[in-house]
Write a structure and sequence with these properties.
With 426 residues, the protein is of the alpha/beta class. 32% of the residues lie in helices and 34% in strands. It has a seven-stranded mixed beta sheet, sandwiched between helices. Strand 13 and strand 14 form a beta hairpin. Helix 3 packs parallel to helix 8, helix 6 runs parallel beside helix 7 and helix 7 runs parallel beside helix 11.
Length: 426
Amino acid sequence: MRKRFLVLLAALATAACGHPETPSNAIAHTTLAAALPGPHVEGALTAKTLPALRDSVVTARLTIDSHVDANTPRPALNVALCIDTSGSMEGKAIDDARKAALSFVGGLKPGDGFSLVTFDSTVNVVVPPTHLSGDTDLGAIRTAIGAIRARGTTDMIDGLRTAIQEVRALYDATRVNRVVLVSDGVPNDATQLRAVVQQAQASGISISSMGLGIDYDEVLMGDLATTGGGRFKYIDDSSKIASYLGDELTRISRVSARSASLQIQPGPGVVVESVIGLASSPSGNGGVTVYLGDISLGSHRDVFFKLRVHGRRDGAVVELADANVRYIGTDNTSHDERFFFGAHASVDEDAIAKSHDDGVERAAKEAQQAADALETIRRAHESDKVPSNVIKRSQLGPLPTSPTPVAPEAAKRDHAAAMKAVYGDD
């Protein structure tokens, strides 16, 4: 059941009546003279010279960078905080959550859209969808946030659905439309959560998730962020919620490429064998598509994929693959950034050895180890035989032959480190 703070709603409605449109002092945040700079892509291979006359496997690295320019304008935001207020948040955690929400509101600008939803046994719309302006009653918002209390169980599914609805109420394709979920526990029912997030992402609303403490489901929360196109974060102490939400606000404010995806199209005689750690789907003619989500200015990400190459004659130029990062820019149009991977075939073993790039191979191995760690954690969660706090320690290192019990805090840290290694961090 959704509860609204009627006094706050009335106050906000009154303010809205006097300002039916975005205020003029917010135009700089909503109407950009030019699109923010999109990501730049570069590629590298474990070897630029491949053995002639026999099949081989080469690993490609696509680096996606989006450099910060302090002079570029900031896009307008439409963001909903979705905060777990179940009984496990009682005490210091809920106090810190209230402070973090207040701090987050303080970082918003005129013209931004904001809403706040909490969930426990029921869902509460603490702050209904609001276009911030100079006339917005921030005192009423602060009072509503100050009244948040911890109680009940964890109805995350309805909380997230409601937060998505609140963002949809102010949806604007030229804005960054985002839900930021913060939870410290396991939801009452998680069966539909991934589907709900996928539907939101498909409609232009991205999801970030933050897991607090040691009791949340890291696999689920990680999946919600990667499916939703946002970022996942592990918060080990509630006193850090404000800092992490502040970082997330900075990231959202710098989003220059929305709903980005990578298309890999192999050349003749080349097969995309795998994309390390990332889900991919067929795109025709042997190609694959990898969903990347939103990309912010200042971000850096490496995507590794393996290509199986049919042997060519000595001296042949090998057209390995075209890589294309497609995204929606802040001008609300589609953009493409392309990179072509090519190599040569040779019977000269010395030339093959000299072309080897140890740095790319080492980085690819680290990404594979992180991906293996995430898969081990996932299997542990899915197995009734292995407790959720027992994983194979593999954070950027070899997997042991048997499960090693670790403290819950270490398990959460391992998962967060592996997520960062595979998905990057901006």
